[in-house]
């Protein structure tokens, strides 16, 4: 999980891969759907907060290559979260 501390190289690789995977369109959908099943969230505001929580971990990559790969994904996820937030406030 993004908030955890990986000790092994394998754990660090899995951490970065999981975070990278969650910052694309399919990953955002997976997190959104999963938030209802994993955390039993009830509202779209809860889902938005969960996505923002994942986005906040974007600075926590272990490897430089992961940080480079994440740049466009972070931009995309920021736009998606911004749009989601705007639509919720309508």
If you had to describe this structure to a student in words, what would you say it looks like?
This protein is mainly α. The chain has one domain: Up-down Bundle (Methane Monooxygenase Hydroxylase, Chain G, domain 1). It contains four helices and no strands. α3 packs antiparallel against α4. The mean pLDDT is 93.
CATH topology: Methane Monooxygenase Hydroxylase, Chain G, domain 1
Q: Structural class from helices and strands?
A: mainly alpha
Q: Runs with pLDDT <50, length 5+? A: none
H/E element string? HHHH
Shape: globular
Instruction: Give the integer mean of the pLDDT values.
Output: 93
Separation, N- and C-terminal Cα atoms: 32 Å
By CATH reckoning, the class would read Mainly Alpha
State Rg.
Answer: 13 Å
User: Beta fraction of the residues?
Assistant: under 5%
Roughly what percent helix? over 70%
Number of strands: 0
Largest sheet: none
Quaternary organization: single chain
Count of alpha and pi helical runs: 4
Q: What's the number of domains?
A: 1
